[in-house]
Amino acid sequence: MKVFYNRRxxxxxxxxxxxxxxxxxxxxxxxxxxxxxxxxxxxGIIGLDTSHSQVFSEMLNDPKAGPELGGYRVxxxxxxGSKDIPSALKMKPDITEAVKKLGVEIVNSxxxxxxxxxxxxxxxxxxxxxxxxxxxxxxxxxxxxxxKPIAASLADAKAIFKAAAQYxxxxxxxxxxxxxxxxxxxxxxxxxxxxxxxxYTPAELEEHHMDLAWYGIHGVEMLFxxxxxxxxxxxRTHTDGVDLVVxxxxxxxxxxxxxxxxxxxxxxxxxxxxxxxxxxGPFQTYKPLVEQIVRFFQTGTPPVSxxxxxxxxxxxxxxxxxxxxxxxxVNL
Length: 332
Known about the structure:
The protein is α/β, with parallel strands linked by helices. The protein is built from eleven helices and 13 strands. Helix 7 packs antiparallel against helix 11 and helix 9 (211-227) crosses helix 11 (306-324). The longest helix has 19 residues, at 306-324.
């Protein structure tokens, strides 16, 4: 039987699977936990209109959380996220209630949030308000993880990193797929130097975002994680049910992204190397991403450089230009 693996299906299944803990234990364990948090480890969330806000809170606030999560705990959240994306608006009330049951205080503004926390997870589902929401965090000097998509456009992504540099505040963004075990094994050299990769991902479109930024970014980020930077040109074949985006790197390597909107789908792929061929994905858990976020909060060193994120967004932008030009090759 065919399964249409859309965004809503992915969210429903990964709220439980991504956490991998806490839900099975019941919420009472979270509420009864000692609420004291060590200095520097108070986490605030901006945006309660995505499953990530709930999953990350469950992981960090789990009384059985291991040392790899560093004692960080979500203590406060500002619920406002997207103002006009139906799926986000629908999720917001339930996510807000779930986070409240974890002992998280709901506050009325970002300014109020910043008085109560040391570091920030900017989780707003909609990339458009991220620049506006990130600016007060930068001005307050607090390290921030900005969930995907970091912005709705390449211009706004550039503006966010420019502002972070201006205020000297570390920031990074990433899909959880970057830290997938299979992906990281390839990065570590399992198949030798990577000669190419093909990935596939759900790629529902959202009218206010670049096409692949909204959900296809999971596949694009997985591709760049194993291929590295250096993409020079992009071509895109677009139909109602699928996109096929082909990137050519400066050294002649080729990477592809199949964005799926009809029929069965998943987030996975294949990497080709000088010593072998290896699978990428599929998605299993958010835990490696949360561990990377905690390490970033501790060290201030982003695991993904601004330059790489901006090339990913340049790739996505070029794919949109190629679509408008009926599949013509577009240079980054």
